[in-house]
Amino acid sequence: MKKLLLMVAIAAVAFMSCKKEDAGEITGSGTLNFEFENVVGNQPLVLTTQNYTNTKGESYKVDMFKYYVSNIQLLKADGSIYNVPESYFLIDQSDASTLKPSLSNLPAGDYTKISYTIGVDSARNFAGAQTGVLAPEKAMFWSWNSGYVFVKMEGTSPTSTAANHNLIFHIGGASATVNAIRKVSFNIDPNILRIRTDKSPIIHFKADVAAMFNGKQNISFATYNSMHGGLPALIIADNYAQGMFSLDHIHN
């Protein structure tokens, strides 16, 4: 009899949970896992050894590629918005452990849109050197300019007129005249991102290095091959905001 009563109680709890979820009363918190896959066009990004070609027909290699993703915002199916506090990721192709970050303690629910900043918000840019992924040791902080590099790509190209045919693109700036902060948004359609206390979905993004050099303006490495912020960096920022990131798939 005790076993029967226990089974009835468990069934009742499960039934009530299902009823609450059916009614839209999803409670608790959960975890969202990310996967960032860096590519060049339709090819995987391989550092140092792989040759790629830009839209100008110029070959190049990538030795370094890393960028900040921050200020993540989630739109619920009911229209409410959740701004994830302290959400800063540094994605670094040379460090596999950075390619799969996660966020915990997110409100459980169904989400239909995700947005984030490419780079670091202006408040953090003007707050000096910080800790964690924003620490100067990550080599993404300009001590001379008191601000962050948002996207850093370094490599080589035989077309480059810089010393050793180097390519150096350090994109950043959050001032009134040079503001490289860019935001991207993705509709989660036709799927819904389902965050639950017992489910940790995975959202998979691709980041295309080649998009830095084509889109709003196609870049020739003979003309642009070394940037450390400044107005020319806005050309690259506009390009990558337009096409660098894509939402590839979701595992609920």
UniProtKB/TrEMBL annotation:
InterPro entries: MbnP-like_dom
UniProt keyword Metal-binding, yes or no: no
Signal peptide: 1-19
Keywords assigned: Signal
Listed PROSITE patterns: PROKAR_LIPOPROTEIN (PS51257)
Source superkingdom: Bacteria
Domain Copper-binding protein MbnP-like: 30-225
Protein name, UniProt field: Copper-binding protein MbnP-like domain-containing protein
Source species taxonomy: Bacteria, Pseudomonadati, Bacteroidota, Sphingobacteriia, Sphingobacteriales
